[in-house]
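Recall that a protein's primary structure is simply its ordered list of amino acids. Everything else, from secondary elements to tertiary packing, is in principle encoded there. The following example makes that idea concrete.
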Amino acid sequence: MSKFHSQYMITMKDIVKDGSPILRKKTEELNIPIEKEDREVLLCMLQYLKNSQEPTMSKKYHLRPGVGLSANQIGLNKRMFAAFFDEKEYMLINPKIISHSVNMIYLPQGEGCLSVDKEIQGFVPRYERIKVKAYDIEGQEVILKFKGYGSIIVQHEIDHLNGIMFYDRINQEHPFKLPENVMIESLG
């Protein structure tokens, strides 16, 4: 049985740190409908994100604010993640990007990650719009569209599930160089 049950509160001690092999492994798909235990894990992950964005809780429990959390970031080889942004919550299982825009965007301040303790400078090019097919916590197939900031978050989390870290997408020789021959603009 997993320690991540309905009464458990995820804190920074549960977050797997950069360098751990599980962060570089492609996660395993889950059978649908998911087990009760996996539902509880997803709810715990979502609760971490909500707690981390709430200033009192964040300060009390020393939580780094996050908008997305993948199962492998808490040490589980499972293809699922939770995200919480723009007052909307997402718990997606076996997500796949089924289409994306040609246009790209990036965050001018770069991206961060709960598993990475240091700041890594550089632009991370992402698709401006994506369409994702996944299953929700109830086992229903869903097709969701994301654009802008939401698109960046979801691509970051799906990368985690594929063993890719955000800094892998930064130009290694010129961190602030953007891809050529593509429309790309700063978000913000």
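The first helix runs from residue 36 to 53. The domain at 12-186 is CATH 3.90.45.10 (Peptide Deformylase).
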